[in-house]
Amino acid sequence: MAAPPEKTMKNLTGKWNVNYKYSDSSEPGLIIQGISYLVRKGILAATLTLETNQYEAAPNPPNEAEPECWHIDIVQSASGMSTEERRCLDDTFRQHSDWLFGNVRGRSAWIGVEDIEDAYLKNGWLVEGEGGKNLILSHAESEDYGWTADQIWGFQEVDGERRHCRNIVITKGDQRAEFRFVYDYEE
After folding, report:
1. DSSP letter assigned to residue 132
2. Which of 26, 57, 65, 87 could serve as a FRET partner for 36 with CA atoms 20 to 30 Å apart?
3. Residue 141 is part of a domain; what is its CATH number?
4. Distance between CA atoms of 133 and 142, rounded to whole angstroms?
5. 8 touches 73 (CB < 8 A)
6. Which residues contact 97 (CB under 8 A, 6 or more apart)?
7. 140 with 105: CB under 8 angstroms?
8. SS3 of 119, please?
9. 70: domain range?
10. 40 burial class (0-12, 13-18, 19+ CB within 10 angstroms)?
11. DSSP secondary structure, 18-86, as one string
């Protein structure tokens, strides 16, 4: 289902499923990330679901600043396996470790389309709200496997409908994978 109008970049709370009809294959990116063949095939055959909770609160450590910032907590699941991401949109690096990607340091921040340098990441975004920094940048660096992943989150028009999307670029050395995830809003 297309994103309802009340779903915005400041209200992503809910359940989102990857729409494989409109999404690109993530397999080239998973290969760069060192994900084994069997795990890749399991991920690619499963419905990928994001259970998202978005809110404003004090920043997470190591940032001890006073102003509140936006948080996005996500449980990402496929085939009964899940990973949890707790993002704080204050552009501060934080450590994360899970069974799939290993040890990663990442940061998330609000970003404007005019601030995006990579042509693939910049492509296709709807200008919504008051303009300015109305997209989300997620940047992750693998400490175990040497890859970097950049994502831009926002809304795009896909087949005539407004949908939540992520443009993703994963690199390691001279290897590069580009793909887009398009999401259906479930609830």
Report:
1. S
2. 87
3. 2.40.128.20
4. 26
5. no
6. 103, 104
7. yes
8. helix
9. 14-185
10. middle
11. E-TTTSPP-HHHHHHTT--HHHHHHHHHSPPEEEEEEEEESPPTT---SS-EEEEEEEEEETTEEEEEE
Q: Quick check: is 8 in a domain?
A: no
Does the residue 5 lie in any domain? no
pLDDT band at 84 (very low <50, low <70, confident <90, very high): confident
Q: Which residue's entry shows tokens 């795990």?
A: 39
Between CA 32 and CA 42 the distance in angstroms is 17
The conformation of residue 2, written as its DSSP 8-state character, comes to P
- Does residue 102 belong to any structural domain of this protein? yes
Query: Structural domain tally of the chain?
Result: 1
Residue type, 125: W
80 vs 71: CA distance, rounded Å: 25
- 115-167 pLDDT, tens digit each: 999 999 999 999 887 767 999 999 999 999 999 999 999 999 999 999 999 99
Phi, psi for residue 62 in degrees, rounded to 5? -90, 0
User: What is the rounded distance in angstroms from the CA atom of residue 145 to the CA atom of residue 54?
Assistant: 30
Residue 4 lies in a domain: no
